[in-house]
Design a protein that fits this description.
By secondary structure, this protein is of the alpha/beta class. It is 49% helix and 16% strand. The protein folds into 2 domains: 1-125 and 292-338, Isopropylmalate Dehydrogenase (3-Layer(aba) Sandwich); 133-282, 3-Layer(aba) Sandwich (Isopropylmalate Dehydrogenase), CATH 3.40.718.10. Helix 2 links the parallel strand 2 and strand 3 (56-60).
Length: 338
């Protein structure tokens, strides 16, 4: 049975959504859950949501990392051998082989730093990358990096492309994924110096590289994986989320403020709008994989609800079953032989 660690102290409203989502996942997906955090806070919630007869265990971790943990203080808590915060304890379970993946809705920076210190990097990967799934006209596109590395070198983008391609094939089931390089023009000579220097590395790789892509090509479904630096990727992510939310709200306002025929029409299209909203809802994916560290790590929004936690466990389970980590290691090793 796949065993997933859930950081019960991760979300903004911990531990309730974290525990509720974990219990839902254990019930629905047939996974074993290790809830890591303060037992005194977790146990009452676990009892209240009926987790007693499910494969859910509590691993006590009396401390937690928050948004206030930064700089040297964060590094000390992330790397100290005896750290008792929920991220460190949870990631150590993965490192020792006692769990297959780690899920948290906690501080992204803290999760990344702690993952690097507790798990280390995959050999041949200079920097890990966060992967964001974006809905497209034909399915889904994975964009990386979406915030882990504001400043990148061309080789980093090549490594992102390899890892993203493996993840798309193994977890998304996309055969020979099309890889694009985000730029401000489709031509090979367009883009920043980073893009221009990364282009030949991707072009000469064994990837299914289709060239530069603009934002419209991503949403039109021209690529399955799009690579960029973390600064551009994060702006792309935040802008997309804001536009999606704005459109849904404006449609609702127009229907509520319209005449009778408009309101009737709105009632008729409500199921269709619901399916679109579901497609755009981050809770449906739950968490972004952090690729490049030597273990399966998934980081969600601090505002995650129980559905988001459940979804994150589902994605983590799929990655573990698909042996994504082993496949990425193999692909990176192969790239080093060139």
């Amino acid at each position: 049975m796949i065993r997933i660690v859930v950081d019960a102290m991760g979300s903004d409203k911990y531990p309730t959504p974290d525990v509720e989502g974990a219990v839902m996942a254990a019930r629905e997906y047939g996974v074993e859950i290790l809830l890591v955090g303060d037992t005194a806070k977790i146990q009452p919630v676990l009892n209240s949501v009926g987790g007693a007869n499910l494969p859910v265990q509590i691993v006590n971790a009396p401390e937690m990392l928050t948004m206030d943990d930064k700089g040297e203080d964060l590094v000390m808590k992330a790397r100290h051998k005896e750290s008792q915060n929920s991220m460190a304890v949870g990631l150590d379970l993965v490192k020792r082989g006692e769990a297959d993946a780690f899920v948290t809705a906690g501080n992204t920076g803290a999760a990344m730093v702690t993952s690097l210190f507790r798990l280390g990097r995959i050999r041949g990967v200079d920097r890990p990358a966060l992967v964001g799934p974006f809905p497209t006209a034909s399915g889904m596109c994975l964009v990386l990096d979406i915030g882990a590395n504001p400043n990148c070198e061309p080789l980093n983008l090549q490594q992102f492309a390899i890892m993203g391609s493996v993840y798309a094939e193994r977890v998304r089931g996309i055969k020979n994924p099309r890889v694009g390089l985000i730029s401000n023009g489709e031509e090979a000579g367009k883009g920043s110096e980073l893009v221009k220097e990364a282009y030949p590395l991707l072009e000469n790789s064994r990837l299914n590289f289709v060239g530069n892509v603009e934002g419209k090509e991503i949403f039109n479904g021209h690529v399955d994986v799009a690579v960029t630096d973390g600064f551009t990727g994060n702006v792309f992510l935040k802008g997309t989320e804001a536009v999606a939310k704005l459109l849904i709200e404006k449609i609702r306002e127009a229907i509520r403020g319209g005449n009778l025929p408009t309101k009737i029409g709105g009632a008729l299209v409500r199921p269709a709008l619901g399916s679109i909203r579901k497609m755009l809802d981050p809770s449906e994916e739950g968490a972004a994989p952090l690729l490049g560290v030597n273990g399966l790590v998934f980081i969600g929004h601090g505002r995650s609800d129980a559905l988001a936690i459940k979804s994150a466990v589902r994605v983590a389970k799929a990655a573990a079953e698909a042996k994504v980590l082993e496949a990425i290691k193999s692909a990176i090793e192969e790239s080093l032989k060139k």
